[in-house]
Design brief:
mainly beta, 6 helices, about 5% helix
Length: about 775
């Protein structure tokens, strides 16, 4: 099958290459990473940017899809699309609790998303996505130790009535995706733009628990965006945006892994002890209590699993508003951004991935109060680029509240005599208030040398009320963890950067900089019976040193590179601690791991040779070493053995990753344009042996590297405004794990990536 797919792919590309007439060229990309419009080649930051056409080529219908194709970037998603968290250059927080903030901040039309639960928003009617690598503490402030992700929607325009509608049908699993956008000037001063996205079906997993084919994994999401633009004069622009949506999609079911010996004792199997999985000799906890279905009954790619298909789903709803004002003051531009988001988050999840109800959870407060509510106000002055000095100054104020009631059924554990507990519950309310002032300045020392810097002072206070309870077999509720009014405040309030740019010529920029970013401290809000694990943990600080190159040696070639070193202080992460309430004797909690060092190199190249008109190739690669360099912490492996964290490599930090994009455009007869794009992305082990405490941990939680190949072939008629395309995702049917995890009670599972899909798309622009 893979050979046939490869032959068809080569034939499709070759058919469009001979003889092409369209001229491929390197287009200028405008970004706003520095909160002003600039050519991406003039910005001294390592940036990956994608417009709508690039996202289509990658087959990226959601934000988390993008991570597969950006070297040096990985995705942590402990629950299979419920709470995607970006990890950039090895910097990330691998935690599923929605009260914790990611280390790579996501900005949706310049509104900051406070929780990782908000990172699964759909991508539709998008002008551009910018991925800023490295600490961004000066302009973006807190929670940017890894970087920042900026999503820019298409804005209304006053020029013409325009829009688009597209529909896609996935042939293998029956998923559909419908998107639409409409722009209309209401007058010479006012315009509106509305957009929507509807995603449905596409379930690809079957549970062995039920006789019928479950088609689990169906998407069920609907989102609308409306914008009103008003420009009463050349000096004033007003943009109001409203978002509303819901997501009731089914999330990925885990593929259960064996841990115990096939002699049906409670001893670990020899394969796991040696650091490898072997389903022929290893069985699950459910088998020890009489369930006959074995881990080996599942398919390798996770399309057939033991987990119950009634679990693993979302029930999210949100409403958001943003008001932006741009005022030309003559000497500078004044920008005001006000935003509000009301997000009701609910997720049901099967922690054990077995046919039995060992640990089933419900996170969120369905049909009740708001789960996540946030508002923010930012004001900034931006100088015009009319002299040797450019500057920017701003202030921001923000507040958010996270109210969560999480519960989990663990009655299956009581049935096998581990513990009399039948259920656990956590209830918390976390409030965060923050304000900041910041500035950035650049000075042209000469025509070729610029020195620049930014500084930001941030004040943040966070408070939590938390209670955890267990329900005993006789129905009695028993309180465990209990804290009221725990608070934490920033100790490291300053962030920013200092840099120098040297333009060797019109086409080459060298830059060097030091930057500091920080991620807020906070509280572990998962289930625990130990108040010590609830103690506030400190903010983490990343002091980064980077040198980079941005170059266009010719009209047909672009080369960018960056070399960086991170001195990481008080890195946050998971630590396994003793617990009397857990059958395994241990629970995984969040804490401070210690200090870390990250060293890496990145290279991007784009070539559009004039000898091959219409053809281009883009290469991007990353090498990374990231480890805990200094730590006094002790964590316990899955057998309860203690290990020091010092010297352990950081997980979700692949040693190498790269992507290749081949594109060919060709003018066909009758005014038609043909195009083909082949996209391949590879990343090394996300959880290598060096990231695990022991061979046993690697056998249960290791994640090997994988490569994804996507193909897009399209025919369009620009004058008529239509396009037909075929998109193949993971066309080689690569079997890969997106997350290996355990439930702290003796069960383990892998969350698998989706098999090959083929989608037929039709789009009409008017």
């Amino acid at each position: 099958m893979k050979k046939i797919t490869k032959s068809l792919t080569v034939a499709a590309i070759s058919g469009l290459m001979l003889p092409p007439l369209a001229q491929a060229e390197i287009d200028e990309i405008i970004v706003t990473a520095n909160k002003r419009e600039q050519n991406i080649q003039d910005v001294p930051i390592a940036i990956s940017a994608f417009d709508e056409s690039a996202l289509d080529e990658m087959g990226a219908s959601s934000l988390e899809n993008v991570t597969n194709f950006v070297p040096g970037v990985a995705l942590f998603d402990d629950r299979g699309a419920g709470q995607p968290t970006w990890i950039i250059r090895g910097v990330g927080l691998a935690d599923f609790n929605s009260n914790n903030t990611p280390t790579a901040a996501i900005y949706y039309d310049e509104a900051y998303m406070t929780s990782n639960a908000l990172g699964g928003i759909g991508l539709y009617d998008v002008e551009r996505i910018e991925i800023l690598k490295g600490p961004q503490g000066g302009l973006y402030g807190r929670n940017t130790t890894g970087g920042a992700i900026r999503i820019a929607s298409n804005r209304p325009n006053l020029e013409e009535v325009e829009g688009s509608i597209s529909a896609g049908y996935e042939a293998r699993y029956g998923g559909t995706l419908v998107e639409g956008a409409y722009n209309a000037p209401l007058s010479e001063e006012m315009a509106i733009r509305v957009a929507m996205q509807r995603s449905d079906g596409g379930g690809w997993q079957d549970s062995l628990v039920t006789a019928e084919d479950d088609n689990h994994g169906d998407r069920d999401s609907l989102a609308f965006r409306g914008q009103l633009f008003y420009a009463p004069s050349d000096e004033l622009e007003v943009l109001f945006k409203a978002d509303i949506g819901r997501d009731r999609s089914e999330t990925v079911l885990g593929r259960a892994n064996g841990f115990y010996s096939s002699d049906y004792s409670f001893n670990p199997c020899a394969a796991i002890m040696a650091g490898r999985r072997d389903e022929t000799s290893c069985i699950g906890l459910h088998n020890l209590v009489g369930d006959p279905r074995l881990p080996s009954d599942q398919t390798a790619n996770g399309s057939v699993v033991l987990a119950n298909s009634e679990n693993n789903r979302l029930d999210n709803e949100w409403t958001g508003y943003t008001l932006r004002l741009d005022r030309d003051l003559g000497f500078a531009n004044l920008v005001s951004i006000s935003s509000y988001l009301d997000f009701d988050y609910v997720q049901y999840f099967d922690y054990d991935g077995t046919p039995l109800d060992f640990v089933q959870s419900e996170d969120g407060i369905p049909d009740s109060e708001t789960n996540i509510e946030q508002w923010s106000q930012e004001l900034r002055l931006i100088s015009f680029n009319d002299g040797p000095v450019t500057w920017l100054a701003g202030a921001s104020f923000a507040s958010d509240t996270n109210s969560t009631r999480g519960s989990a059924s663990v009655k299956g554990l009581a049935d096998i005599g581990f513990t009399p507990i039948t259920a656990i519950e956590t209830i918390y309310e976390q409030k965060t208030d923050t304000w900041a002032v910041y500035g950035q300045v650049g000075y042209d020392v000469t025509d070729t040398v610029n020195i620049n810097g930014s500084v930001r002072y941030t004040d943040e206070d966070r408070e939590i009320d938390y209670v955890s309870k267990i329900a005993l077999a006789d129905g009695v509720l028993f309180p465990l963890g209990d804290i009221q009014g725990f608070t934490t405040s920033l100790e490291s309030n300053w962030s920013g950067h200092l840099g120098m740019d040297w333009r060797l010529n019109d086409d080459t920029l060298l830059y060097a900089k030091f930057s500091r970013g920080f991620k807020s401290g906070g509280f572990f809000a998962g289930f625990t019976d130990n108040n010590d694990t609830l103690t506030p943990y400190k903010e983490e600080v990343n002091d980064a040193y980077e040198i980079g190159l941005k170059s266009n040696p010719s009209d047909n070639l672009q080369i960018n590179a960056a070399l960086f070193f991170y001195d990481y202080q008080d890195a946050q992460g998971k630590i396994s601690t003793p617990s009397a309430a857990s059958p395994s004797g241990y629970l995984t909690a969040l804490g401070t791991l210690g200090d870390a060092e990250h060293t890496g190199f990145e290279l991007d190249a784009l070539w559009a040779p004039s000898e091959l008109p219409g053809f281009s190739v883009q290469l991007a690669g990353s090498w990374l070493e990231a480890e805990i360099s200094d730590s006094d912490e002790i964590s316990f492996d899955q057998l309860g053995m203690p290990y020091s964290l010092e010297g352990i490599d950081r997980d979700f930090s692949p040693k190498s990753s790269y992507s290749i994009v081949l594109r060919q455009d060709k003018e066909l007869s009758g005014g038609l344009l043909g195009s083909a794009a082949l996209v391949y992305a590879w990343r090394d082990d996300l959880a290598a042996r060096s990231t695990q405490l022991s061979d046993t941990d690697y056998g249960l939680l290791g994640q090997e590297g994988y490569g994804i190949l996507n193909l897009r072939i399209a025919v369009s008629n620009e004058s008529a405004g239509w396009e037909l395309s075929v998109v193949g995702e993971n066309i080689t049917d690569e079997v890969y794990t997106i997350r290996a995890t355990g439930d702290d009670t003796g069960s383990y599972m892998d969350m698998m990536g989706m098999p090959a899909t083929w989608t037929l798309n039709a789009q009409f622009n008017f």
